[in-house]
Every structure is written in C-alpha cells, then in structure tokens.
Design goal:
The structure is a single chain. This protein is α+β, with helices and mostly antiparallel strands. The chain is built from five helices and nine strands. The strands form two sheets. Strands 4-5-7-9-8 form a five-stranded mixed β-sheet. A four-stranded antiparallel β-sheet has the order 1-2-3-6, sandwiched between helices. It is globular, with a radius of gyration of 15 Å. The protein starts with 5 loop residues before the first strand and ends with a strand.
C-alpha cells in the first residue's frame, strides 16, 4: 500500500456505523465512545473529524472538538455543546486505525492532516490526552507533555499533551 492509496476526508453521517466499529475495535470498552456519542460528534464537529479510506473502505479516523481550553476535560467527550468552532485549540479525542492497517503510517497521516487543518484555521495549537506508553509517539510530532491529566476517562491514567504553533 502506498500513501497515495489513502484518502483523508471529512466524516459524513453515513459513516457512523463504520466509525463506531473502528472505535469499538481500537479502544477498550470503558474508553470507546458509544455510537450515540459518535453520532453527536459527527453532527457537532464534522469539520474536525477526519476518516482515512483505503480503496473506498474506512480504515481509521481522528476526531475532536475545538475549545479555548489548553487541556481536555472528561466532560468534553460527552458534551458536544462544549465545541467552540472559533476556539483556540483543536482537541483530539481519538486516533484509531483498524489493526490490519496499523504501523503503516496511516495514523501519522491523519495526525499531520488534523494539525495542518488546525494551523490553516488559525488555531493556537492541538491538545490531546494519551497513556504513558504513547508519550514518545506524540512527542515525535512536536507535542509537549504537560503532566498527568485530571482526566480519569475509562478509569485510566492519562497525560496532557500540547502542540503550540509558533506565533507568526
């Protein structure tokens, strides 16, 4: 598979079932967003919800709201009313690639796409939470670890990460 074979596009309402399946496949049940929550995210912030397609099939996605906060709080995952289209930071709630397509650069392509989109829209940066083992991965994209998160999403320990764009 070549990079050219991967299409990145905005999610659409008709993608809900496949996105739900990818979410359930890639995240533990306690952390996975249910179908209803994903449906609300698609409706509220499809402009910052991107899917990766290979030969017409969705194989992964990245999504998150836009906020003025520098860290993600647990209420953001469930409350799409906290999405602020004019916000300063693009949040990442989930980056998921189905297992048979992992370790082929697709997650990186989605991440680069979301970062570029946030820059193009004049955001100050991108924020996310991740588990300790993923700190080196996100650091490689320029994110800085700002410490253990207040988030207890899914009963796990998370770290707050931020990528701040240079002021131009």
């Amino acid at each position: 598979m070549t990079e050219a074979q991967i299409l990145i596009r905005n999610v659409s309402a008709s993608d809900l079932d496949v996105v739900t399946l990818v979410e359930a496949t890639c995240f533990p049940q306690a952390e996975a967003a249910p179908k209803a929550a994903l449906n609300e995210r698609i409706a509220a912030f499809s402009e910052s919800f991107f899917v990766a397609e290979h030969m017409g099939e969705i194989i992964g996605f990245v999504n998150g709201n836009v906020t003025n906060e520098r860290v993600i709080s647990d209420d953001m995952f469930a409350n799409t009313a906290l999405h602020n289209p004019e916000g300063l930071y693009q949040a990442i709630f989930g980056l998921a690639i189905i297992p048979s397509f992992q370790k082929q650069g697709i997650a990186a392509k989605l991440l680069h796409h979301l970062i570029a989109d946030a820059k193009d829209k004049g955001r100050k940066g991108v924020i996310l939470t991740c588990k300790e083992q993923l700190l080196p991965y996100y650091t490689g994209f320029g994110f800085n670890n700002i410490g253990v998160s207040q988030s207890t999403h899914g009963g796990s320990e998370w770290y707050d990460m931020i990528l701040e764009f240079p002021i131009e």
